[in-house]
Amino acid sequence: MKRSVESKLESAFDLVETAVSCGILPGAGVLVMHNGEVLLQQAYGLCDVENRRAFTPETIGWIASITKPVTAAAAMRLVEDGKLTLDDPVAKYLPEFARREDGRLHHTITVRHLLTHTSGLPVSPPLRKRDVFDPFWYSQKLEETIPSIAEAALAFAPGTEVEYSNSAYYVLGRVIEVAAGRPYEAYVKEVILDPLGMNESYYPATLPAAEAARIAVVYRANRQRPRWALFRYDPSVQMLNSLPDGGLFCTARNLAKFYQMFVDNDDRVLSKQSVEAMLSEQVPGRGLGWSRRHGGLAHGGSSGAFGWADPPAGLVGILLFQFNDFGSVQRLRSEFVAAVRAAFGLNHPSPAFAVPTAKPWAFEIGREQDGATACKAANVRAELRAPSGRTFTVQASAKDGQWVAHTTLDEEGVWQVTTSSNPPLRRLASRFWFEASAGRPNVPASSSRAGHS
pTM here? Predict the structure, then answer.
């Protein structure tokens, strides 16, 4: 039986190996566990293209936003110890938030709002002008990032909408520091990483110089720019920011141990009540720190890394990608999960979506990818519902058979916008509106596909 499943799993691993051999990915680490046992683990390609370093099962990669459920788990330990409650106002721990004013209305942000992306705080911290590896940003201590977040205007009243927020997890990390009475990363190590045996998991400040040869280079690519190195570890650079929204580096096997905790639910590191709370859908498509999709729990990171688990089936899958183009990588993640589920005779669930079908809208539904649905359309005005519950109105028209606007999901589950022409775009609260040029009516546009990390 085991050999039969391993044989079937090879088709899932072949997807990644092919992506590497075709040059879509520079390299990758892949792992699948069943009932706590590693069934198959492989590594392909290079973790450092320029220096021809091989990607191996021992490669340490940046897991980026998969750090968020780790931060959430640390918060739940404080709940278990009576030092925090989910409905505590953030201002109880961070006085900067007691002074928050939005016009004449005072808004209370709770710990639960932070965990569920319902706080209304900005998507990214205001002082983070580029990426997490910007020298100014990683030189900031966690406590120094909070005042500007507290002063930022809210996108909506807390609890009324869902919008993915990196800022919220900086605030949560600082709340953890205050409630625990020790640095965020030290507390996470003490109560989550060490008890799980994740001894090859590191925050930026603790990356070991002696392991520099094992740390992967992180690459990016987009339509305007071919592959470039976003991050290359330099032991001489001191990174002070613990990045509670996305700072962890670890091996594929270490990351699998964290996911396995939610499969086992054995009361060893987190109580069963905490695990069940984290997995319970708090808002559409989300638990506490987790996305609830792929028939289980999942999270991706902007590094390309991805993890997924199906507790009833006893399955854990890890993709330690260190490359992201926000397109092919997202599709590959989804195809990998579908292939793993197929190897165990499980159906690949199709997340719910909603697109109005009444005339005068003329549209067709393209291939669904992980909860995002692509439309091809002529003169379409449609509402698309993301897994987070956010709804977006898209108004577009066909011009010479091509899209003038389409949507995709980024690695964090937030709808992103790209346009092939130059229609005006305005942001209204949490809705994106597309106003496309008139174009020619009734000309079907070419199919596009939207993916999710």
Answer: 0.80
